[in-house]
Amino acid sequence: MTLKTRREPARTRQPVMELIAKRWSPKAFRPEIPKEAELISMFEAARWAPSCFNNQPWRYLVTTREDPEAFSGALACLTEKNASWAQNAPLLAFQVMGETFEYNGKPNPWSGFDCGLAMSQLILQAESMGWSVHVMAGFSRDKVRETFGVPEGFKPLVAFVIGKEGDPDTLPPHFREEETAPRERKELGETVFSREWDRAFFQERPD
After folding, report:
1. Nearest to residue 19, comparing CAs of 122, 163, 121, 127?
2. What are the backbone angles phi and psi of residue 132, rounded to the nearest 5°?
3. How many domains does the structure of the chain reveal?
4. Which residues of the chain have pLDDT under 50?
5. CATH number for 69
6. Where in the sequence is the domain holding 75, given as residue range(s)?
7. I need a surface site. Which of 87, 153, 162, 166 has the fewest CB within 10 A?
């Protein structure tokens, strides 16, 4: 029997864009690799993200299974837990963050935020084209630097895979349980405040 995945739209309190409601981060992937034109669209979406002083601090290191040596090198940068499922993804990449402003060389404290905006746009563009993205924090920055020759002033920020959602039955049992668990988020009253910390901005309303 095929297990039920979390691909069902999120149960939101109020309507949101269908693309946002449907987005999630699978661990099971099919072997199909995005075509170059599709990848260009995804990274073009990231390219047009807003950034402080238009500094565009994001850089990307991209490998696919079509280049086994590069893909294996990228896979070796992940934690063992992440590598155990990411090895089946068709594309493995890293987002790298520029740490300074290009126009004056001073530290850019908003680089991480800007890179997050770019990644979000890449994810939504991928979703709109039928592809899924799973972003990971579990990897070695030092290994990424060594493997890909990342220069000073740039910091590997996140790893991510892109692929078509696969069958959760192909995953080890502990990942399979995660893949089929209900989708959950904190309530807005826990994250959106007014006047003082922990004072909810939105009044509680019955469902």
Report:
1. 127
2. -115, 150
3. 1
4. 1-4
5. 3.40.109.10
6. 18-200
7. 153
Whether 65 contacts 90, CB under 8 Å: yes
Sign of CA pseudo-dihedral 134, 97, 36, 82: negative
| 4 in any annotated domain | no
As given in the structure block, the two tokens for residue 64 are 């696919």
Evaluate whether 158 touches 136 at the Cβ level (below 8 Å).
yes
Q: Does 7 map to a domain?
A: no
Residues 157-176 pLDDT 10s? 999 999 999 999 989 888 98
CA neighbours closer than 13 Å in the CB half-sphere of residue 67: 11
The pTM of this model reads: 0.93
Give me the pLDDT at residue 157, please.
98
- Per the CB < 8 A criterion, the answer to whether 200 and 188 are in contact is yes
**Length in residues, the chain:** 207
User: Does 10 map to a domain?
Assistant: no
Alpha carbons 3 and 78: distance in angstroms, whole number: 27
Question: Is 3 domain-assigned?
Answer: no
Q: How far is CA 98 from the centre of its chain?
A: 18
Question: How far apart are alpha carbons 118 and 61 in whole angstroms?
Answer: 14
